[in-house]
Write a structure and sequence with these properties.
Layout: E1 28-29, E2 32-36, H1 40-52, E3 59-63, H2 80-94, E4 114-117, E5 120-124, H3 127-136, H4 138-141, E6 144-149, H5 154-163, E7 168-173, E8 185-189, H6 198-203, H7 206-212, E9 222-225, H8 234-243, H9 245-248, E10 255-260, H10 271-284, E11 290-295, H11 301-311, E12 317-319, H12 328-334, E13 337-341, H13 345-352, E14 358-361, H14 368-380, E15 384-385, H15 403-418, E16 421-422
Parallel strand pairs: 1-16, 2-3, 2-6, 3-5, 6-7, 7-8, 8-9, 10-11, 10-13, 11-12, 13-14, 14-15
Antiparallel strand pairs: 4-5
Length: 424
């Protein structure tokens, strides 16, 4: 089996942690609560950090649940509490069925205080309830690690810390923009501070900066990463390499994996990029043994259709159509090189943690802090622009991004300063 070139995650104990913390004392964290927002990109970062800390079997997932369906899809810009108040007013006027007529895709919605994902009940995040649980169980189970990510989770996570400051350690992933002292630690990428640079300030009117940028340079509450945290660590990829062995080990080498995301407000594209990518892939196909193409949930149908029409009948190319098991982690384990669209910080962060060649298409279309992210990746030598002139059989290497493990070490260090440790 091919070796998975990834650094090992940190151990559960940080060098220098006092020996006094035995598993039976109150300074040992054995459990975690994740506050999610329903978006995979945010929740996977929380799961990745908890996994790196050795608590992947000892966490509960709560979710900040916004009203859904009907007019609510246009109200997501409101703070959660305001959104719920508006929703309550609408229901009081028009009746309970008004908001459940359908969502943006025309699907019926079912109101509930919980959401069911597989066999897991995801409870709605209630700061008072979680804080009470942390206080009531502290003597028996020790302190509680709270990990949250995304704008909607900020008020919940900060309230938990305010209500139970002696019983919890709160980590907020992605920058909350202000009031960093409401959290024990903030983990955020460097490009979130791009707007404080001279170039960034030229692009944003002064009267908008307080709403979309951090107010001050990073302080001791902040740990900076290059990209996004994720779950694709060494054990996960070794497991995926074994799980996908029968399907992927037999592929002709080199294996080129092409991951296609979807346009965003700061990285816009459409069929023009799809045609450009198609042309470039045709030019490098001679140097590939196999090509595996995957689309994300954000990929426009017009983009996937262009690539499907061009490569659907090519024996060298396999296109995952979304049916069956998602081969994404298997691709990370077995690929020899990647081509990834520039819109996805998460996909790029995962691929760049493998140490394998990563080519990016569409970076020139990124704006604001996402352009800064692309620039940083190229300066570190972890990605190269995809030009269509590459020989995929030629390899190149770089120090892999290790953001998740380094963030875990920072959490352990911060806990040690407080006199706490983690029992993985």
């Amino acid at each position: 089996m091919r070796p998975i070139r990834l650094p090992s995650p940190p151990s559960g104990r940080f060098p220098g942690t006092p020996e006094m913390f035995d598993s039976g004392l109150h300074g040992v964290i054995r459990r975690a609560v994740i506050i999610g927002n329903g978006f995979a990109g945010a929740e996977n970062q929380c799961l990745g950090l908890v996994r790196a800390l050795g608590l992947s079997s000892c966490y509960s997932l709560y979710r900040v649940i916004r009203p859904r369906g009907g007019i609510n899809r246009w109200l997501r810009w409101l703070p959660v509490s305001v959104h719920k108040s508006v929703d309550y007013l609408i229901r009081s006027i028009y009746g309970d069925n008004f908001k459940y007529e359908g969502n943006a895709n025309g699907q019926k919605m079912v109101p509930s205080s919980t959401e069911r994902t597989g066999l897991l009940d995801i409870l709605e995040a209630d700061a008072k309830r979680i804080a009470r649980m942390a206080r009531d169980t502290f003597d028996e189970n020790g302190p509680l690690l709270v990990v949250a990510s995304g704008r909607d989770t900020i008020s919940v996570a900060s309230s938990i810390r305010q209500l139970a400051p002696k019983n919890v350690f709160v980590v907020q992933i992605q920058h909350p923009r202000s009031h960093l002292n409401m959290f024990d630690l903030v983990i955020t990428p460097c490009h979130d501070y791009y707007h404080l640079t001279p170039d960034g300030q030229k692009q944003i009117p002064w009267f908008l900066r307080r709403w979309i940028t951090p107010h001050h340079p990073p302080d001791r509450h902040v740990f900076l990463t290059v990209g996004a945290l994720h779950q694709a660590d060494s054990p996960a990829l070794r497991s995926a390499a074994s799980l996908w062995h029968d399907e992927l080990a037999r592929l002709l080498k080199p294996v080129l994996v092409v991951n296609i995301g979807g346009p965003t407000g700061n990285c816009e594209y459409g069929i023009d990029l799809a045609k450009q990518l198609t042309d470039m892939l045709q030019k490098v196909l001679w140097s590939c043994g196999s090509v595996r193409i995957s689309f994300s949930r954000r990929t426009p149908e017009k983009v996937s259709k262009i690539l499907g029409k061009e490569f659907g009948n090519n024996p060298k190319v396999y296109i995952w159509n979304g049916e069956g098991a998602n081969p994404h982690v298997g691709h990370l384990a077995w690929a020899d090189a990647f081509v990834i669209t520039a819109d996805s910080v998460s996909m790029l962060s995962e691929a760049c943690s493998t140490g394998k060649p990563v080519y990016v298409i569409g970076a020139e279309r990124c704006t604001w802090k996402f352009a800064d992210f692309q620039k940083r990746l190229q300066e570190l030598g972890v990605v190269r622009p995809f030009t269509g002139k590459e020989d995929i059989s030629e390899t190149w290497s770089y120090p892999p991004l290790n953001d998740t493990a380094e963030a875990a070490r920072r959490v352990i260090n911060a806990l040690a300063e407080r006199g706490w440790t983690i029992q993985a």
